[in-house]
Every structure is written in structure tokens, then in C-alpha cells.
Amino acid sequence: MSGQIVTRFAPSPTGFLHIGGARTALFNWLFARGNGGRFLLRIEDTDRARSTPEATQAILDGMDWLGLEHDGEVVSQAAGAERHAEVAHELLEKGAAFKCFSTQEEIEAYREKARAEGRSTMFVSPWREADPSSHPDAPYVIRLKTPLEGETIIRDQVQGDVRIGNDQLDDMVLLRSDGTPVYMLAVVVDDHDMGVTHVIRGDDHLNNAARQMGIYSAMGWDLPVYAHIPLIHGPDGKKLSKRHGALGVDEYQKMGYPAAGMRNYLARLGWSHGDDEFFTDAQAQAWFGLDGIGKSPARFDFKKLENLCGQHIAALADAALLKELDDFLDATGQLPFTETQRDGMSRAMYCLKDRAKLLPDLLEKGHFILSERPLDVDEKAQKALDPVSRRILSELTPHLQSASWSRDDLEAQLGAFAEAQGTKFGKLAAPLRAALAGRAVTPSVFDMMLVLGRDETIARLAEAAEES
């Protein structure tokens, strides 16, 4: 196969974008981007009863948050029904498909008899080789003629060669009696028409590939390269489900995982590049290959996810982190930053990143920036503001009026003041934290003073020094 690589992600809009789907999208995106190809998005909305606009939007939002931008317009599978039916009729004309007039009752009776006789219940239609002149004037489905002998070999980039005897494959329905195409036909026609060269999807579709290959073969179309990736399991080794925690990517966003960390972790979930754990998008795109995908199911590990997210928070540029925080506030229905808060968070990011694993950690550490006077002092911090501490804070204020407000000068001023009080700076730290943030656990006192600036720092110290 030559020419440009084209991959696709084709979710069904019957719910949120779950983690397994997000990883499938990511693998397709990485493979296309790393090879200068195109990454397409198709919404498989043929199940009209279960497909909803809300679910489609949830998928688009999830991909947008993960930064998996697709090329071209979103394709609706349902919109191509006429084209899908056209292919079914073309197969009929070629003799590669046939009209089957068997009713549901007849098919069920056939299966009942087969069960009673201990034979395969796979339906064999009596209409496969029937002369058209014997066709009744009755509803019919169009079925694909599957070869009766030999085998179908799926040459899979992950699973290796998978062989299925053709006697195990039924003459599948292509067009229902009401003229609507089935999903299996629609997928093949869409992939062909969209120029998809590589089908990278979950291994729960592996058996579908053997049946879909029959349509490619009958139409004389080139087969795509198949790569069926193992499903994701929970920490207990069982298929990932609701009992393991969050499932939709929207939930992970609301929990505060940064998108960059999520991409990194999902890429490592079933694919590896040596011993590399932490990597950037550019590295992932350059390294990603189908040969790095493992055959065994990957286990979802929240601790590893958090650890990687912490590394990405530390490595992200301040502006990118602020954008992540903006999106997090929006996703969780919180008020956006004011201009003052945004400026403060931007200037403080260097000291907020330290040991933060999730986005709420940044907000918690940045509490001193996001709060306004009069501060709401929590119980633990309140204990540090006893009468002696308040007196010391009131005496400290004049010393800070003349400080040059550099870290070195502030450290020198506070060190000298503590010595003059006959104590160590460590003893001053607790009341200073309480005064500046209203909390007992905060970034360093000096970082808070530098971010707040001289006027706000002195105003907070003066307020805390007053009797409450």
C-alpha cells in the first residue's frame, strides 16, 4: 500500500467518550500525525433509536479536551445510507450477493432443528442458489455470498495472522427487508470511500474483520491494514467498567487530570517505546508504531496516571497550564478567574507546580491568590494567630515597608527580625502563613510575599495583627 496514510476513529454516539474509545482515537491520531497522514472522524449513528445529538457532542467535547483534532468534516454514517444500499445492489448484480426470502420464523425453526440434532445453528439460506424466476413477490433481505470452502486470513499488525474457516462464517445480511443497510456493510463502504488505509480499533472487532473482508473482496477493493488492539482492564484484571471508577473522559477532566498527562498515559496503555514513561506529544508522534502495541490487555492504574500528570504539570509552560485551569473551571461549573487572579496565578505558577499532581492541587496552593481580604482563616491557621503572634506581626510590618522586595532581601529582613525577637524564622512561618493565606499549609512564605507584592502583603499582615 502506497500513498498517504489515512486513519479514522468511528465511535457510536450512544453515550460518553469512554477511556477505551479515547485510547483508540489517540492511537489513530498518533499514527496519522507521525506519518504525515490524515486522521478522520466518523460518527456511526446508524442506530437511530440509541444515537443522540448529546452523545455526539460529548464525543466531540472529549476529543477537543484531549487535543485530538481531526482532519476534514465529521462524517455521519447515517447520512450515507443511500450509498451503502447502492453497494449492496451492486453486489447483487455481480452475483456476490443474493436475495433471501426466509422469514424470521423459518430461520428460528431451522436453528431449533439444528440444536435438536446437535449441528451448528448458523443459518444456511435455501435461497442462496435459487433461480430468480422462483423468487416470490415478498419482502427479502440481501445477503453476501460467503465462500463455502477455504479460510479467511486476517493479517493483523497486532494479533498476527488470524485464520477463520469460511465454513464458520454465515452469509451475512447486507440490506434489511426495509431497504436499510446494516452496520457491517456501512463500515466497509465508508472506510473505502473515505480512503482509510489503516483500521486501528479494539480487538472486540476482530471477528467483524473476517466478515467485512468478504465485502472488500467481492467489490474488488483494496483491504486496509488491520491492527486490533487489546481492550483495557481495570487494576483487578477484569474488563474496565463503572465499578473501577470514572469511565467517560469528561469525568477525568472534571477530576482535574491535565490533558497532556492523559494523552501520555493513554499512549502508554498498551503501547511502549523501550522504557520511556514520560514523553511529549512530539515524541509520541515520532515514536508511535503498530509494532509497539502489545497483545495483552493493559491495566488501568490511577497511581501511574497521577504520577505522569504531575510530571506534565511540572513541565508545561505557564500559559498552557492556565489554559488547562480555564477549561477545568469551565467543565466543573466554577467561576472563571478575574484578571487579578489570572495575573497572580500566572506569576505564581513557578511555585504552585511543585509536587502538584492534578489541577485542583494548583488551585489549592493558589488559594492565597484567589482569596480577597478579609481572609477566611481556617481553624488550624487560627491557632497560629495567638496574641503573641499578632503582636510580632504588628512589629514586623514597619520592617517590611523599606524592604526592596527581592527574595534575598526578604529572607535577610525576616531572618534579622526573628533574631531580634530571640527566635528562629521557623517560629514566624506559621503565623505568616495564617496571615497571608488563611491556611496552615501553603507555598513558601517568601513565594507568597513576592507574588502578592508589598502593599497586599503588608495589608494582610496588618489585618491579621488586629484582635479578631
Task: Give your account of this protein's structure.
Residues 4-306 form the Glutamyl/glutaminyl-tRNA synthetase class Ib catalytic domain. Pfam families: Anticodon_2 (PF19269), tRNA-synt_1c (PF00749). It is a single chain. The protein is mainly α. It folds into four domains: 6-74 and 232-301, HUPs (Rossmann fold); 79-229, Rossmann fold; 316-359, no CATH class; 379-465, Orthogonal Bundle (Arc Repressor Mutant, subunit A). Helix content is 49%, strand content 10%. It is built from 19 helices and twelve strands. The chain has helices at residues 19-34, 53-66, 81-94, 104-116, 183-193, 206-219, 249-255, 259-268, 281-287, 302-315, 318-331, 339-352, 359-365, 367-370, 379-384, 387-401, 407-420, 425-437, 445-465; strands spanning 6-9, 38-43, 75-76, 97-100, 141-144, 151-156, 160-165, 173-175, 198-202, 225-229, 232-233, 298-299. The strands form five sheets. Strands 1-2-3 form a three-stranded parallel β-sheet. Strands 4-5-8 form a three-stranded antiparallel β-sheet. Helix 6 (206-219) links the parallel strand 9 and strand 10 (225-229). Helix 12 crosses helix 19 and helix 18 crosses helix 19. It is elongated and about 110 Å long. The model has no long low-confidence stretch (mean pLDDT 94).
Please give a handful of descriptors for the protein shown.
Rossmann fold; mainly alpha; 10% strand; 3-stranded parallel beta sheet; 468 residues; 19 helices; 3-stranded antiparallel beta sheet; 4 domains
